Amino acid sequence: MPDTSTPAPGSEYRYVIGDYALAAVQVLGAGWGGDYGYLGGSGLIWGPGVPTLRLALNAKDNLVLYSRDDTSPTLHPVRLPNGAATDADDLRKVGEMLAQLIVEQYVN
Asked: Is residue 10 in a domain?
């Protein structure tokens, strides 16, 4: 359990959700963009022919991907391959998995 008496950046999780979104953008390549949500607690992803997507925690603290513009969005669960990313290799794997999910669900 992390030491909560002395909070420090990355003391519990090295990467924030916004980092995962930007890792997916790197994999998706040219024409795709992304940004951090408030305090990195979510991430936005946009690209050619797709709505702006949000990567965030739902009310049950599950990581989900959904269209930000949809009034009643379908929440696509995101299963992190090895739990939270702890190094650059893990972050790349999360980016690849998210990119695959985006292509499967949103790219025609």
From this structure: no
